[in-house]
Amino acid sequence: MKRIKQENLGCQPHQPAPNIGQCCGGGPMISGQPSPNGFQHNPHFRSPGTGISCTGPLTISAATSSGIHMGIEAEKFPAMEYSNGNVFQLVVKQGQPTLVPPAEETEKGLYFLSNLDQNIAVIVRTIYCFKSEEKGNENAGEAIKNALRKVLVHYYPLAGRLTISAEGKLIINCTGEGAVFVEAEANCAMAEIGDITKPDPETLGKLVYDIPGAKNILEMPPLVAQVTKFTCGGFALGLCMNHCMFDGIGAMEFVNSWGETARGLPLCIPPFIDRSILKARNPPKIEYLHQEFAELEDKSSKSDLYKDEILYSSFCFDSEMLEKIKMKAMEDGVLGKCTTFEGLSAFVWRARTKALEMMPDQQTKLLFAVDGRPKFKPPLPRGYFGNGIVLTNSTCQAGELLDKPLSYAVGLVQDAIKMVTDSYMRSAMDYFEATRTRPSLASTLLITTWSRLSFYTTDFGWGEPVLSGPVALPEKEVSLFLSHGKERKSINVLLGLPALAMKTFQELMKI
């Protein structure tokens, strides 16, 4: 059983937030600061918010398996109950799905996916809620569908289908058959769906179309879109996309290009389609240990602890609290600087390690993604269509992490960021080429951050989204960072822990 509750530490409990939830499959898109994207799952990772998969060769398994997870189930509540005692059941009536091919003839044939794409072939679900005072939703579906047809001319691989290459790797067959598009109607006003400042797959999942009977990602188009109209005149755009097509930055560039097309504007950032610039070297040249792939031994037997009820809680850190964490990290004079991501990541990593009562000699790992676009030599071209994020890691003993001051943990995070160079990233791609193993989440915390993604800039002609973000809850190894509040200066930290561990973690979050 999984339950979710909101801990309001420093932020106003009912303050509207621009982000909602999270990805499906393993985690959004994977992303940790200083990367402005999100991660969300990986090949063996499994579900919302991850993007990484377990170690081992590529296996195309059932969508609900640990390898390719289409979403994490929250506790099933038959209805949403509000503080006023009213109970409301969201009902969404979906129309017939249609295929939306590119408006013009596009290139056909097999389309290469890099090893950075192979590592995060998971499903990511996001929604964007729009409402305009001047414009109703009558033509929203048709306008967005027509714009999709046009923008797919530029992003034609999204109109193809995933398949397996002769090398046993994922590849896109550019068939041009199109994305799946569905129009739907909800039985309520947009505001009635309740507090969507935290992931709620039971409710928000109704705003995203699932391909009936799809058993694995090969049976799912790279892009599925659903436009749901609300009785108030607002509407939601729900997207189901495969992370192997792009990371958070690339996804936002695509959605923003789609919006520009809907408004009759040229693309601000045309996509750079050729992913062969990130081909592995031949022969592979592995120059680093790549601990991100290492399977850590569970000396603390925490797998048994996770048989207990899993509770999901969201903790809000306002700007004042974030500043306190950074000051705490620098108070001993060891560090010359500390960013918000570095401080908060180290703080959460230490607290989770303590809450899980890991043995002192237990190795613990922190995983997060860094935007590699500017770090490659030469840098990736503007508008690069694909995954440009690279996983980095910090590993140490639990006792060392907890006994030493916060500055030590922050230093580990900083070292992990510095480690990401052109040679490191190319070595990581070659490592996958040679071993076909994927990052392991054993005794690991994966932080995926959506707090720097520009969800709020999308405009299809109805203005910027009222709310937007991912849909699903993160996996048990994942902590999700979401921006909070109108000014996006606060951060919501969402994660799931066994009930007893969550009680301890909640105490440790009080600054």
If you had to describe this structure to a student in words, what would you say it looks like?
By secondary structure, this protein is α+β, with helices and mostly antiparallel strands. It has a domain at 300-508: Chloramphenicol Acetyltransferase (2-Layer Sandwich), CATH 3.30.559. Helix content is 22%, strand content 22%. It has helices at residues 115-118, 140-151, 201-204, 248-262, 302-305, 319-330, 340-355, 398-403, 406-418, 422-435, 499-508, and strands at residues 2-7, 29-30, 80-81, 87-88, 92-94, 98-100, 109-111, 123-130, 161-164, 170-174, 179-186, 223-229, 235-242, 310-317, 363-371, 389-397, 444-449, 467-470, 478-484, 490-498. The strands form four sheets. The chain has a seven-stranded mixed sheet. Strands 5, 6, 8, 11, 12, 13 and 18 form a seven-stranded mixed sheet that branches. It comes from Salix udensis. GO terms for molecular function: acyltransferase activity, transferring groups other than amino-acyl groups. Belongs to the plant acyltransferase family. Keywords: Acyltransferase, Transferase.
